[in-house]
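If you are new to this repository, start here. Below is one unmodified record pulled from the training split, so you can see the exact layout before writing a loader.
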Amino acid sequence: MKIMKKNQLAILVISLMLITAGYLNYQTGQNGEAIESGTTLENNENVNLASLGDAKLVNANIVEEKKEEPKPEEENNEKLDNKEKEIKQTNTNISGDDYFAKSKLERNVMYSQMTSRYQETIASTTGAPEQKAVAQEEINKINSMQNAIMIAENLLTSKGFAQNIIFVNGDSISIIIGKEKLEGEEVAQIQNIVSRELKADINNIHISMK
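And here is the target side for that same chain:
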């Protein structure tokens, strides 16, 4: 009986050893898979993080580009500022040389309109010969006066009065000079030029400064 018990005990011990060895092998296999799975997850996580990093970088660039684009309100404000500058610059120029250039242009347009009306009278088929003769005479007067004014203004420019303009209203002649002050000799010089070229009385010549 004792021998049988010893054999049974040996078999039991061997069985326990085999069971223990099998369990250890099983645990080792599970740990290996867990390690491999952990590595795979870690690699996947690194890949996903890298992808997210790229996506964030691209999005950041898009946001920066959008910030650099001008807003409609800013564009409108910039246009308004430029427009105000142009208006201010125009107003400033009108007080200088442009005043004389603009005034001469308006004066010449007036003479051109007067000439056109007289030419219509001449071209009319119903107009009397006397009316046509008067109209032609007026045209000749306008042309002669324009030539005399042009010569006088050019002479004044050559004498140092670069900014000047002459207006004729019947016998009265007005001259505007672009200076703050005129000396007595300068006034006499202007009067002599205008009187000679426009055949006007000195008493009818009026000089003002701008």
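Two things worth knowing about this chain: The two ends are 148 Å apart (CA to CA). The first strand starts at residue 164 and ends at 169.
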